[in-house]
Design goal:
2 helices, single chain
Length: 77
């Protein structure tokens, strides 16, 4: 139903991103975010207010959430 999903679509702006891959359950995503923020600080990178998550391997493909793979993209400014 196009009306139902029209507000859920997000188009990422073009540009440069800091990208990280998280292997494990969603409950541990913050660890990966912290590593990315630390890396950005060490390399003089600044990023905007939004993060984008893409579930590359998720609950449909694996039986245990510890096997999830999530791509995290932070827009650089």
């Amino acid at each position: 139903d196009p009306d139902r999903h029209s507000n859920a679509e997000v188009v990422r702006p073009e540009g440069d991103y800091l990208v990280g891959y998280h292997y494990g359950p969603d409950s541990a995503l913050m660890q990966t975010y912290k590593q990315m923020v630390r890396y950005a600080g060490e390399h003089g990178l600044t990023f905007g207010e939004y993060a984008y998550e893409e579930y590359l391997v998720g609950q449909i493909a694996v039986t245990d959430s510890k096997d999830n793979v999530t791509k995290i993209s932070l827009k650089l400014v």
